[in-house]
Specification:
The chain has about 250 residues and is of the alpha+beta class. The longest helix is centred in the N-terminal third of the chain and has 19 residues. A four-stranded antiparallel β-sheet has the order 3-1-2-9. It starts with 5 loop residues before the first helix and ends with a helix. About 45% of the residues lie in helices and about 25% in strands. The chain has a domain of about 70 residues: Orthogonal Bundle (Arc Repressor Mutant, subunit A).
Length: about 250
């Protein structure tokens, strides 16, 4: 769902999280497995694993499930996964950047192409839409009860590498962004402050947005959600500008 109004995203994801918990867990488990195979099973020495475990905890994944995923990644006889990205367009000129983790490239590209085509989109060559996004560190967490002085809290985060700190009084969530190179520093700062994030990830943030009428919006979101439902797809980024009232349509 990445790429549109941040508070709408949070509210929608929380609903989808309950409805699709099993699929979400399977993708987190895959990420943990890949992280272990790539950099070992020690989170302190493996930033990717450390981040994957943090996101697993943010999704309320049981501790024993996380431990099984780590052990699975240590199995040398397991499947060999690799990261791959595809770029394309949804209908109405909406750009999509699709990050996948797969053990079968032919299967994954065929599936991604099929979903795009079925919903009126198209697969493009590498570099065709990547320039429309910038990499940013994004952290989302519930507002800690101890925050009394928002300005002091913001200054402390900025000192740790934050670029923007946004409070949403309705959902009681805080979203913090950073430059890509400050992601690790800000992650450490939040941990030092005793803050447990629900999501902590490098995202591709659109530099320009496409606004659509309601019917067109629904058709594009069906495509995006179909991509997200694919087992090999880890994240889907897009530059569709979504209004709060449009989120209610899906």
């Amino acid at each position: 769902m990445s790429g549109h109004n941040k508070w709408s995203t949070i509210k929608h994801k929380k609903g989808a999280k309950d409805a699709k918990r099993s699929k979400m867990f399977s993708k987190i488990i895959k990420e943990i497995t890949v992280a272990v195979k790539e950099g070992g099973f020690d989170p302190d020495a493996n930033p990717r694993l450390r981040l994957a475990i943090a996101n697993a905890k943010g999704a309320n994944m049981p501790k024993d499930t996380i431990e099984r995923a780590v052990n699975k990644g240590s199995d040398t006889d397991g499947a060999s996964y690799q990261d791959v990205a595809y770029e394309g367009y949804a209908p109405h000129g909406v750009a999509v950047f699709i990050e996948c983790t797969t053990d079968n490239l032919n299967r994954t590209v065929a599936s991604v192409r099929s979903i795009l085509t079925k919903h009126g989109g198209s697969l493009s060559k590498n570099g065709s839409v990547e320039f429309l996004f910038e990499r940013k560190g994004m952290f989302t967490f519930r507002r800690p009860d101890h925050i009394k002085d928002e300005e002091a809290f913001m200054l402390e985060l900025i000192d740790g590498g934050a670029e923007e700190v946004d409070f949403d009084n309705e959902s009681h969530y805080i979203q913090v962004s950073s430059a890509m190179e400050d992601f690790g520093n800000l992650q450490n700062k939040l941990e030092d402050m005793g803050i447990e994030t629900e999501t902590a990830e490098l995202q591709r943030i659109p530099t320009t947005y496409v606004s659509l009428d309601d019917d067109s919006f629904v058709s594009v979101m069906k495509l995006i959600e179909s991509l997200e439902d694919d087992d090999d797809v880890a994240k889907v980024y897009h530059n569709l500008d979504v209004k709060d009232e449009q989120m209610e349509l899906i």
